[in-house]
Amino acid sequence: TDWRLKSGARARVRRPPPPGLxxxxxxxxxxxxxxxxxxxxxxxxxRLLDRLHQLGAGDRICAVLAEEPRARLFRAPxxxxxxxxxxITRPMPLASWSAKTEVxxxxxxxxxxxxxxxxxxxxxxxxxxxxxxxxxxRRACRDYPKPVTFDRCFEVAALLDAVWGVSEQQLELLxxxxxxxxxxxxxxxxxxxxxPFCMLIRRHRTLLPAMAA
Length: 213
Known about the structure:
Blueprint: H1 2-14, H2 36-54, H3 59-65, H4 97-100, H5 103-121, H6 126-140, H7 150-161, E1 171-175, E2 182-186, H8 196-203
Antiparallel strand pairs: 1-2
Helix pairs in contact: 5-6, 5-7, 5-8
């Protein structure tokens, strides 16, 4: 009987597993595919960055306007009140805006601010409004010896509409009762100087923008 027990044990060992316990063959690994619209977003992102670089935008300004994830890590340095100020080398003199800002710069900022706000009210995205308004300002003031930079206009837009890190409006767009032009004043300035366009009319009429606001 011993040999029968041993052969039965060998038979049990050699018996194939039941069909229900069979291991299913592994499926081939396929790389994750992005949705079809992701390619369009990537192309639009590259085009936006190229446009911003052509307009002279700084690296951090590009990150904010392109809504890159790293922009969330930006912090204002010591002595700067807003996150937006972290992108500029020196903050604007809001307490003495009209006194310490050159007249031709005030004119260019006013032209930019007027067109930026007009586009935003037409439901244009802030980034597109920023780029288009700056391009319009550059064309209108193309003969100016000291053109304003894209980064400074970015800060003007942020201070005007309380966006991109600014918690409350700090610049205001007014209309001159004399010449009808729109110009900027700082809410932090106790006694602002008047309209910069009127100053150009009296002194340097040739520097008036081609498309003054």
